[in-house]
Design brief:
alpha+beta, Creatine Amidinohydrolase, about 30% helix, Methionine aminopeptidase, hydrolase, Pept_M24, EC 3.4.11.18, metal-binding
Amino acid sequence: MIEILNSTQLTRAKTTGALVGDILQTLKNRSTVGTTLLDIDRWAEKMIVEAGATSCYVDYAPSFGRGPFGHYICTAVNDAVLHGMPYDYPLADGDLLTLDLAVSKGGVAADAAISFIVGDARPPESVAMISATERALAAGISAAGPGARIGDISHAIGTTLTEAGYPINTQFGGHGIGSTMHQDPHVSNTGRPGRGYTLRPGLLLALEPWIMADTAELVTDADGWTLRSATGCRTAHSEHTIAITDDGAEILTLPTQARP
């Protein structure tokens, strides 16, 4: 299903997107050495509930997981990259943490992810990986607009990641979003320009470039959810929900302090 939102729904999408961005920023600020992943999940739950919203993950039970997920946010550390299930792990200085949050409010969902380094350490490889995903996300957003194709976005993301020297996994990527978290069209993190669905105003897309340092192969934890790099290398993931507008694309999941 591909949804095209009307003006009322787009207004609600902006509210949901701002909530996601603000929660992620708050969680980043609170995530210090010694914080556990379960602490982060509890904080996310509290903020979501207080906002009158719902997490898209608690009851999430797709065919590829061992569901329902049962937590409010995905937390992935170091070699974990996607669908990281929170557990009682205390963060250490230099850990690379990814937080992925999808929330629904007013009947419209928004989805975003951030990767950052915990504590004072700044491992150069981790800094480079995070930067590459952020640049790829910016390139994908720049390629989005009315009349553009999904392949244009995929090509922009993939070119950035490949030029940075990272292999690309195509099992998981971006997606349409609206009244539900995951919708068509799928947005691969690499592709050919001029191909695929033509973008229209009112379409919401969650774009999410993610990489692993030296492999494109994933393995699944015993929890049935957490996806890790097959080699144990570090990973990074950046994501925003955007709305296609009459003249381009608007990022909906920026935190309030980062909005123009």
